[in-house]
Amino acid sequence: MSSGIAANCPAWSIPGYLEVRNRHLAINGADAIELVKEFNSPLFVFSEKRIRDNINRLQAAARAVDRPIKFCYASKANSNMAILKAVLDSGIDCEVNSGGELFKALEVGFKPDQIIFNGTSKSDDELDEAVRAQIYAINVDSIYEIDLIEQSVERLRAQGEDVPPARVTLRLVPEIGTRSHLGLQTALLTSKFGISSSEVLSAFRRGLQNPSLINVCGIHIHVGSQTPDVEPFAEAFKSMWEHLVTINRETGHTLQHINLGGGIPVNYLRDRSQADQLPEHERDMLGADLEPSAVLTEAMRVARESARAANAEHLLDQVTILLEPGRSVIADAGLVLTTVNNIKTRPETGDIWLLTDAGYNIMLSMNNYKWYYHLISASRADEPYGRDYKVAGPLCDSGDVYFDIEREGRLPDYRRLPADVKPGEVLALLNCGAYSLAQMFHYNGRPLPAAVLIDLEGNPKLIRRRDTYADLITNDVW
Ligand SMILES: Cc1ncc(COP(=O)(O)O)c(C=O)c1O
């Protein structure tokens, strides 16, 4: 019997994961159209196997530089509990950005020493929760926050809680640019993040003043998300390394870890058939294919060179390296299945409009960042592109479209799909696993979609139930 897998693989396919079977899109063997029949539309579909493969790829990079690396999954990318569980089961650690994410990480089973906590504006309650939990590190975003953490330790001790000094990492913002969207760059002085280079030494001196309250154990730079080149990572690593040496020489204190942040890019343009509609810099950024091993190898090379020159190789050999990957773990492990509800033609322009049930309330980055997600027909995944369509979502907002309404060319004007798409056809937006589910909202009174995870055995498992109308009003008081 034939497996039904199409012989000619489309460019977007990933063998063993995203394939064409019996003309339909299949995710780890699960038929997309059957999934919509069972779980309704729109629907998020995640692959546990792809999450594992992505994490294995990161772990292989650690082996390439022959160093143990502490990978802390950036849970802001997707903190659905089943996704966090899949990450936990794969053996890596977790980065959180709020008391809520800390709660979820602990609840799912990450141990405190597996958790690091970032954030520009942590509340006293959030700091108390992190200090009480005794997590691996709180990443401090300003000199003022050092005071707040010390106060938190004192407050908890005054209440009779026996907490050790809080482990603290200082986050720097060294003016390193990348070729990602400005809104995703986080190491520029114009960004809201971190402590600037001119303040680094005084910040560390301040942090070392009260060792009974805080233990300054690391240094951190996150250059931004979807960083397409190795250079910003290498520059950031070298900068942190040189600060580590200076701090050691000036204060005698040795930092235990260097945290290089997240930002390893995902190739959103495996299928380049629509890329001709994008400007070159968008193509380079969205289509980046950077191996994590290349990032780590180059970072270690520049640090080793600098260590040799400074006669400080022993310090480099002792240091633990942290990475905070989000997108590179989960983006291409998730997709959205969406149904065409309505269709219209504009005789004046000749355009055919497809109106789907997936709006920017479930894919905010498509509107905020004009982020490109490749669109295919899940119902006719084997058919060649036959026509250009204008595609839009269901929200009562002109901006709820799959093209760049501001005409800045950041998204293709038209999406190419098979000819004769009709209402009822199921489409798939690929690579939607990161920064989507966590940013959904109920605009226009739209119940939020369900999500399923195809488990390691190939079985779909509901990991988020679809909202009911009652969910729309649960928190309203009237
Ligand atoms: C501090 C920090 N670490 C890690 C990440 C994850 O980045 P990415 O999803 O690009 O790997 C982010 C997101 O921008 C971040 O702000």
Characterize this entry briefly.
With 478 residues, the protein is of the alpha/beta class. It has helices at 32-39, 48-64, 81-89, 99-108, 124-133, 143-158, 200-207, 231-251, 280-286, 292-309, 313-318, 327-330, 364-368; strands at residues 18-21, 24-27, 30-31, 43-47, 69-74, 93-96, 115-117, 137-140, 166-173, 195-196, 214-220, 257-259, 320-323, 334-346, 351-356, 375-377, 387-392, 415-417, 426-429, 450-454, 460-464. The strands form three sheets. Strands 4, 14, 15, 16, 17, 18, 19, 20 and 21 form a nine-stranded mixed beta sheet that branches.
Give a written overview of the molecule:
- This protein is α/β, with parallel strands linked by helices and 478 residues long.
- The strands form 3 sheets. Strands 4, 14, 15, 16, 17, 18, 19, 20 and 21 form a 9-stranded mixed sheet that branches.
- Helix 7 packs across helix 8 and helix 8 runs parallel beside helix 10.
- The longest helix is centred in the middle third of the chain and has 21 residues.
- The site of pyridoxal-5'-phosphate has 18 residues, from helix 12.
Overview features:
single chain; 478 residues; alpha/beta; 9-stranded mixed beta sheet; 8-stranded parallel β-barrel; 21 strands; 29% helix; binds pyridoxal-5'-phosphate
